[in-house]
Design a protein that fits this description.
Layout lengths: L2 H23 L5 H19 L1 H11 L4 H47 L21
């Protein structure tokens, strides 16, 4: 890969790393995902900046050009992350449904509760007036 390509990819990776850390600081991304993306970005920069390592990775995936190898690896990584995110979304969706059901049952139980008697046991000092017909 050319020096210009290495510089561009390194700068883009640095900007993305700053963005990921900023999202984590604002609590829009968990620390686990921050570490995962940081590792991916750092591994990408190391792979691109090391010609020997990039040549080995290109041969390992069976590609002819290093850019093709990077594209294949990036596509595979994004596919794995998409499947993992879908799995987490499914788990969270099921948890939300279960919590909504539990909340509905609790609300129903509260609505069906019999109100405690308001009679304190004291009798009216004057009986109600009798009506004459």
């Amino acid at each position: 890969m050319s020096i210009q390509g290495q510089i561009v990819i390194s700068l883009i990776s640095l900007l993305l790393l700053i963005y990921v850390v900023a999202m984590t600081v604002r609590q829009r991304l968990s620390e686990t995902w921050c570490l995962l993306w940081a590792a991916v970005l750092i591994a990408g920069v190391v792979l691109v900046d090391s010609p020997w390592l990039l040549a080995r990775a290109t041969a390992l995936v069976g590609a002819i050009y290093p850019a093709s190898a990077l594209t294949m690896v990036a596509l595979f990584l994004l596919l794995v992350l998409a499947i993992h995110a879908s799995s987490e979304a499914t788990v969270h969706s099921r948890q939300i449904v279960a919590l909504a059901r539990e909340l509905a049952l609790l609300q129903h139980a509260v609505e069906q509760r019999v109100a405690p008697p308001t009679d304190t046991g004291a009798k009216d000092p004057q009986p109600p007036a009798a009506t004459q017909t």
